[in-house]
Structures are given as structure tokens and as C-alpha cells.
Amino acid sequence: MDLLEYQGKQLFARHGVPVPQGLPAKTVDDAVKAAEEIGYPCVVKAQVKIGGRGKAGGIKVAKNRDEATQHAEAILGMDIKGFTVHEVWIEAASDIDEEYYASIVFDRSAKAPLFMLSTQGGMDIEEVAERDPKAIARLHVDPLLGFQAFHGRKLAFEAGVAADVVRPVGALLEKLYDAFVKEDAMLVEVNPLIVTKDRKVAALDAKVTLDGNAAYRHPDHADLIDLAAEDPQERMARERDLTYVKLDGDIGILGNGAGLVMSTLDVVAQAGGSPANFLDAGGGSKAEAITSAVEVILSNEKVKAVLFNIFGGITRCDEVARGLIAAFEQIEPSVPFVVRLDGTNDVEGRQILADANLPNVHPAKTMDEAAAKVVELAKGGS
Amino acid sequence: MAIVVDKDTKLVTSGITGREGTFHTLNNKRYGTDVVAGVTPGKGGQDVEGIPVFNTFAEAVDKAGANTAMIFVPPRFAADSVLEAADAGIDTIITITEGIPAHDELRVFDYLKSLDRDITHIGPNCPGALSPGKASVGIIPASFFKEGNVGVVSRSGTLTYQIGNELAQRGFGNSSIVGIGGDPVPGSSFIDIIAKFEADPETELIVMSGEIGGSAEEEAAAYIADNVSKPVVAYIAGFTAPPGKTMGHAGAIVSGSQGTAQAKAEALESKGVRVGRTPTQVAEIAVEILGG
Predict the structure, then answer these.
(1) What CATH number has the domain bearing residue A274?
(2) B-contacting residues of A 287-306, CB under 8 Å?
(3) Which fold would CATH assign to domain B10-122?
(4) CB contact, 8 Å: B185 with chain A?
(5) Which of A50, A183, B219, B242 is deepest in the core (most CB within 10 A)?
(6) Chain A: nearest CA to B85, how far in angstroms?
(7) How confident is the model at residue A367, as a pLDDT?
């Protein structure tokens, strides 16, 4: 789960990472109240999970109440690269002297958290990495040992951090690591990490990704889900404990097992179709889960045809067939379905479907045949 | 021969008294796996259809001679269970559990490595390992597979069944099938398992099924070019996956420009590994190489 900037900063603050004072606001009134409380100059910052907010006009400095009103009015509701701004963060303006970059990524290959620190902050770090790879100091932290003070000094000296702030930068990195581990983050990024004119350090931005698998030990993380920005189908699926990802196309997909579903999307695309979603009904899919999943798929109005691709292992094809029949009783779909059942109890499953004689349900023997058929149906063939 | 599990496997299941744990352990036993014990703290002395239950892995090793552990406990207990199995001296650990926090997986991986023992940890979030005709540990529907010369290693369960089934329809069986799982920090990588298949005299061809996220496939490509004499056929799932979205498996995510299916397929092809674009094509290429 990705966090908004201000959520990331609030999480940083809990672990002692210095951040400028700020308040979130969802309306112009609240934004102005927040600005009055924080004082001027302050910064009105659009809260969306996409980079390039500044260039898009989503970050503005307000010197007084009028400007705060004006900026909040302009930014709230603004569209930034397809993301609507539902919330702003009003923050005390910082007197910036230097801009650094710091991040910790979960390095799957090295099996260790990877720290990166650079004095070339405030810009796209991938560009910096390409132009001047030596400008980024890198260090893996042994997760069994944890972050040591010398790690901070090593990174800071290697990156060329100004000598007078090596210690505070090191201390900030240590707290950042604490947040990374204790909050079960997959990524924390601070760009820029600033040094102010009075030589204080602070995180001026925050990008944080949390591990959904660790949610059980962080009940507070549930409050960080950005309901306003959540896609309606994705929300519906989440509430029903279904693994669903919305895509742009018009062919609804249901399968069992993440790998098989990914593969199904690819095979449909190769057949000239465009998948509307990823939906993994999971191992051991029961009838109710199938009904629930069909409702989610069809709630996306773009869907013109649906493909069921099941290879039964723990999942039994007869259960899937019964689930599909139950779904048809409850929702009477208006779009055609192509159903491929293979694996555990496939013969029974196909027989159950044949006997039910559901309208507009087309059986297919193989994955390739099923994909070709659903693409044809979505294009209006029969 | 076969890899990971075979006739010498003496299995202990952690979480044997849970519904799923009981169901799949008994399935494995029916298949012919030598299931010697279960572990559930506090339920020592009981039995599950004749399989003795112990309080600790240490007891299961001492009293029942267990040498392979299957972890079936919920995510919050699973990392601890893996560590306990290793502490008891078990060198083959297969973790079926899905949903273990990535940081826990990281600590388990680094700790097991630091022990300087030859521990094989398969999973988490995997379907297990099957050596047809010998032993099955996990949830792979074993009846679809027969003995043969194709080794399969995969990040996905159902995709393994799909590819295995296509091979079976064309008359080919498997030496072993190993699901390494869909999490960000698998205990065993493609490289670990491919190395075992390379050394296994029964295996004549290796099928690897990868997916988006991480760089394990790219690393395997380089390894295969330098170390593997047997033919390898690959499949990669997730060409249509959008960046930044987790596609079901916790590890299946394209981060920025990293971990795309395209890059993985290209890395493999550049090292001479043939990549099928559909599961069916993978089976066709395998059959072509084996001369079916």
C-alpha cells in the first residue's frame, strides 16, 4: 500500500524523523484554518500518489490568508496526471539551503534493505543514477544486525554531505531505518531531504510503501487506506476479500491462482483482446466466492464479455460450476461468458454446466481456445 | 533420483491439527509420502489418523526421525515455525503459508544462510514439491503428474499444473516439480532449484515458470548460460500487468521500470533460453527438444 505524502510524514514523525509542521485539509475552509494556525508563509501541497506535483501546479506557497484561499481553491479538485486531488497538506514553509536524497528499498535480490543517499536531491533520482551513478552512495544493512551509527557516517561522507550536518543526517537515517523496519515498509523515500539555512535537517517529502502482509500487526495502517482515491471496483473487491486489479479493457477475467490469472490476461491480449481486470478467486474457490467475484467483475460497466479460466488443484471444477449457476440466478448477466474448466472434477463441472444450460455461456476446452472465443464475443461476434 | 522430496523423505507437518493441515498432510500420506509426525504446541501426545503429534520439532526429530518439515500454520506463526524446524536440525523445510510479512522472510532467509548448513527452504506462499511416484509434500494435485524426465520450477502453483498437464497430455512426465512461491523473499531461488535439476540424473529438461517482479529470472538466465548443460524452457507471466500493482502474489509487482515480463523474457532469450509465449507453447517447445 502506497501512502500519501502527509501520511508518510506523520509515520516518520512517530519514529523521530524531523518533518515540518503541517495539517491536512479536505475543504478550502479547513485549508485556510490550517494555514492560519501554521502561520505564513506556508505551502499548500496537493496530496496525490504521483510524482510531478510541483510542475503540475499542485504545490504553491501562500504568504497570507488570501493566497491560502486562492491556492486551496485551485488545487482541491485539480487533476494531476489522472489523479484527482481530494486533500491538501498545509505545511510551514522551509528556508532551504541544500536538497539531498535518501531512500531505503527492500532489495529482494541482495536479501537486505538498501540505503541510498545523494546530495543531488530535489530531482528525479533515476535521472541522477543514469547521469552520474557515483553521486549516489549505497549501502546494504544486514537485517540481523540492524542500522549502526557508522552506517550513517559512511553514507554521509561517501555522498559528500556537508561536514557540519553529517551527524544530524546520520541520525535522520537511523530513524528512517527504524520506521522502515518497525512499520514493515517496502520502500521509504525522502526527496528532498533538506538542510535549512540554520543548518537543521528535515524530510520535506515522503514516499512510503507498506507491506500489506504485515497489516495484522499494524491495526493503525487500515486508517491509511485512501478511500477517496480508491477505484469503486477495487474497493468492492477488497471488502469481499478478493484479489482484484482493475485494468483498462473490456474482457472480465476470473481464474484461480495468481500465476494462471496473469497468464490468462497475457493470452487474451495475444488473441487481440483487452482485459478489464485481474481477479484471482484463490485456491479452493467455493460457490459463494464465485458469485461474489462475478458481481465485482460485472459492476465494471466496460465489461462486454467474461472469461473463466480454471485449472482445478484444490479448487474443484464442480464447485466453480455451481458457483457460476448460483451467480446467474442472482444477477442474470447481460454479457456472454466463456468457461474453461480443467483439472480436479473437470468432467463433473462441465456436465453440471451443460445440464444447467445457462444462456450465453460458452464452454471451451483449452486456454488458447477460450481466449480466442472471448475476444470474438467481446468484439460483438457470436 | 529426484530433488527436494523422495523415498527418503520423513515428513513432519507444523499445523497438522488445523483443517487445511490435516487435509493436505493426509493427502500427502495417501500419495505414499512417509509422514512420520505432526507438531502443534500443546497437543503433544494426540494423533491425527495415526500420525503422532508432538509439542516441538525437536521431539518430532528425536522420536519419529523427521527430516523434512512442511509449514502449514497461519502467517503470524509461520516464520517462527521455520526457525524452530531449522533449530531442530531439519534441513528440508517447505512453507506453504501465504501472507508472511516480507521483513520476517528477510530475517529467516539471512538467518538460515548464516547457519552455514545445507538447508533447503522452499516457499513461502508455494504449493510445495512433488516427485511423482516417490513423494508429495504440499498441495500439488499429484494425480495429474506421472514419472518422467522433465523438472519443473515455478513461482506459481496453478500455472505449474497448467504446464505440467500440457506435458502429460503429450506423454511426458516429471522428475520433480518444485513451487518456489510468489513472495518477495523465496527461501530457494530459480538458481538453487535449477542447480539441483542439473545434478539430478533423472532430469533431462528443465522448465522454469517465472513472473513479473524482482530479478530472479534475469539472475537465473546468467546462471544457466554459465552452469547448465541441460536444455531449459521458460515461461514468464505478466506481460499485461500495469506498473505499481501487486498481481495476486506479494512478489508480483513491476516497480517503475524494474521487473517487467518483457525484460525477463529478453534476458532469458539473450542467454539462449527458449521462452514460450503461452503455457501451451512451453509444452510444445519442450516436446520438440525431447523429440516427442
Answers:
(1) 3.40.50.261
(2) none
(3) Rossmann fold (3.40.50)
(4) yes
(5) A183
(6) 19
(7) 94
Chain B residues within an 8 Å CB radius of A112: 106, 110
The alpha carbon dihedral of A154, A160, A166, A172 has a sign of negative
User: In angstroms, what separates the C-alpha of A17 from chain B's closest C-alpha?
Assistant: 21
- What is the CA angle B145-B268-B200, rounded to 5? 45
Chain B touched by A147 (CB under 8 Å): no
**Considering the domain boundaries, does residue A5 fall inside one?**
no
Q: Annotated catalytic residue: which of A6, A100, A101, A244?
A: A101
Residue A196 and residue A329 in one domain? no
A202 & A158 share domain: yes
Per-residue pLDDT of A271-329, as tens digits, reads 999 999 999 987 656 778 888 899 999 999 999 999 999 998 878 899 899 999 998 98
For residues A108 and A178, state if they share a domain.
yes
- Pick A313's closest partner by Cβ from B141, B238, B239: B141
Give the domain-ending residue among A65, A92, A119: A92
| pLDDT at res. B292 | 59
Domain that holds residue A285: 230-378
Report how many domains make up chain A.
3
CA dist A96 and B16 (Å) reads: 60
Residue of A nearest to B256 (CA): A126
Of A213, A268, A312, the CB nearest to B102: A213
pLDDT for residue A50:
86
Distance of CA B271 to the CA centre of its chain: 24
Q: Give me the phi and psi of A5, to 5 degrees please.
A: -50, -50
Active site residue B121: no
Of the partner residues A259, A270, A283, the one whose CB lies closest to the CB of residue B211:
A259
Answer yes or no: is A11 within a domain: no
- What is the mean pLDDT of each successive set of 10 residues along chain B, which is 292 residues long? 94 95 96 98 96 98 98 97 98 97 97 95 96 96 92 94 90 96 97 98 97 96 97 97 90 86 96 95 94 72
Same domain, A36 and A127: no
The predicted pLDDT at position A381 comes to: 61
Contacts with B226 (C-beta within 8 Å, 6 or more apart), sequence order: none
pLDDT value, residue A266: 97
Residue B110 main-chain phi, psi, to 5 deg: -65, -35
A-B CB pairs within 8 A amount to 168
A contacts of B239 (beta carbons < 8 Å): 265-266, 269
Please state the rounded mean pLDDT for residues A334-353.
93
Q: Does some domain include residue A342?
A: yes
In a domain, residue A76? The reply is yes
Active site residue A6: no
Domain boundary among A92, A122, A154: A92
pLDDT, tens only, A352-368: 999 999 889 999 999 99
Contacts of A256 in chain B (CB under 8 A): 158
Domain with CATH 3.40.50.261 in chain B: 145-290
CATH number attached to the domain at B145-290: 3.40.50.261
Residues A251 and A202 both lie in one domain: no
Asked whether residue A244 falls in the same domain as residue A370, the answer is yes
- CA-CA distance, A304 to A325, in Å (whole number)? 19
Same domain? For A163 and A293 the reply is: no
Summarize pLDDT for A56-71 with one digit per residue, the tens. 999 999 999 999 999 9
Domain identity same for A57 and A104: no
Nearest chain A residue to B97 by CA: give it: A213
SS3 B180: coil
What is the share, in percent, of chain A residues with pLDDT greater than 70?
99
Identify the closest residue of chain B to A260 by CA–CA distance.
Answer: B159
